[in-house]
Please model this.
Amino acid sequence: MARAEYDAIVIGAGSVGNPTAYFLAKEGVRTLVLDERPSSGQGQNKAAIGGVRATHSDPAKIHLCRRSLEIFAGWKSATGTDIGWKQGGYCFPAFDEQVEGTLRKLLPIQKGHRLNIDWLDADGIRRVVTGIATDGLRGGTFSPEDGQVSPLRASESFTHEAARHGAEYRYNETVTGLVRNDHTVGGVTTDHGEYRAPVVINAAGAHASRICALAGLDIPVLPESHEAGISAPVKEFLGPLVVDIRPGPEGRTINFYFGQDSDGQIIFCYTPKETFSGENRTSTFEFMPIVAARLINLIPRLKNLTVRRVWRGLYPMTPDGSAIVGPAPGVRGFFLGVGMCGQGFMLGPGVGESLASLVLRGRPAIDPEVFGLLSPARDFYRGKKESLK
Ligand SMILES: Cc1cc2nc3c(=O)[nH]c(=O)nc-3n(C[C@H](O)[C@H](O)[C@H](O)COP(=O)(O)OP(=O)(O)OC[C@H]3O[C@@H](n4cnc5c(N)ncnc54)[C@H](O)[C@@H]3O)c2cc1C
Model:
């Protein structure tokens, strides 16, 4: 195939790649998006349950997810497309002193970042989470401005909008090499041909390390397999996405989380005590019995749910639990939006906007100092992992 010329190439049409392409194309950048799968959002994007919150403890996640929330919340009026945005908030209930202590300790940090989150007593939580078991309930945190979005509809709409602004998408095409001239990137090669551009953005999700290796970089993004499921729709009764951070009585889970999406379906996951490293996406026998017991224990009326399907997807993990975003060290024109861990869907629009701004204006869309916390040049083995949804 003859060489094609672009201003920027995005590798990966996923949670990060699609918003990045959208923000680039919207500003007139001739953008090519390449994905090895047959259509957009078919990597880990479609595995996400769609939780979106700014109420983290890490400043970079707070700032980027706050932008994501604004983008998701304004998407329908900006584009006319319904992506299933539901502003039901996030609720972390507490049933023991330890969980209460953990949640209360985060509040001053979160309020310091002007996040709308508060401690509610048991009655308050009962009002927010209809049908919650009250035995031992001490209260919990509630952040009403967080919410949920449909990952399937969002990736479809970002792709559509990016293409409407001129971005070109090529599917079933695997990036196999980077065109480089000394320490400057000049494009990519794929199993179909070669494409030239002075800017290449790695948004390859679980395979991001392989793309970095093509540039001689050792960037640790390690896939970890997680399961989820979704029910048939039921009448709306549950506002927030609920995160129960108690370890499960079965000894297999360290937390679980679920919400009711804008179509009325209950969507749920848990974090296993023993994590599954690697890319095995076969559903396990134990997921449904374990998660069903936890759901029914917390909200007894959920015993009447019909579960429609379960699936397993990958968290692109990093050693310190933070994403890796910014210019690749030592390779001019090469940018990374990788290592999103379990929060790539909610980080995607914020990361995409800042990557586009970095390419176009040399600075991110959020506070550069905060953005710098995600630098690809940092020591990935210092700092603690934050793994909650
Ligand atoms: C069960 C589960 C629940 C989750 N729930 C949530 C949630 O509620 N909220 C949240 O924020 N996150 C959630 N996540 C995490 C989220 O799904 C990921 O963090 C996110 O999708 C990662 O985005 P990404 O753009 O890095 O990767 P992806 O969305 O996987 O995109 C990467 C793309 O790159 C393509 N690609 C890779 N290599 C190449 C190559 N060589 N050439 C061409 N194309 C290539 C892939 O095909 C893929 O389409 C969940 C994950 C799982 C598994």
